[in-house]
Amino acid sequence: MDVLDRVLDKGLVVAGDIKVSLAEVELLTIRIRLMICSIDKAEAIGLDWWKYDRHLSPGREQVMQENLELREELRLLERKLAALTRTTGRRSRAVRSGKD
User: Fold this and answer.
1) Is 32 domain-assigned?
2) Which of 6, 36, 55, 72 is the most exposed place for a label (fewest CB within 10 A)?
3) How much is the pTM?
């Protein structure tokens, strides 16, 4: 158990290449990079791709779509507020100029 704790805390990297050749002609190269560590360690070194992978985070697409819809709704509300502010500003200026 101590070995596992240490590997997860510090991390372990395994790297290798597999090459398939026929008559000294390279047909295929597969590069394998494997890193084993805890999620905390991965995030500490800047690895968080699983958060954005739709296969690993199935609800993420729905959240992203909802986020886009909410942003669009916010833009519409901001435009309406700006229009109301301009209209109110014109009325108050007209009222002030009529009093003079």
Assistant:
1) yes
2) 55
3) 0.40
Number of domains in the chain: 1
Which residues form the domain of 25? Answer: 2-71
Q: What are the Cα distances from residue 91, in Å, to 1, 77, 88, 95, 99?
A: 76, 21, 5, 6, 13
Report DSSP state, residue 56.
Answer: T
Over residues 11-30, the pLDDT tens digits come to: 888 888 999 999 988 899 99
Residue 25 covered by a domain: yes
Is residue 34 situated within a structural domain?
yes
Please, are residues 41 and 11 in contact by the beta-carbon 8 Å criterion?
yes
Q: ∠73-57-60 over CA atoms, to 5°?
A: 5
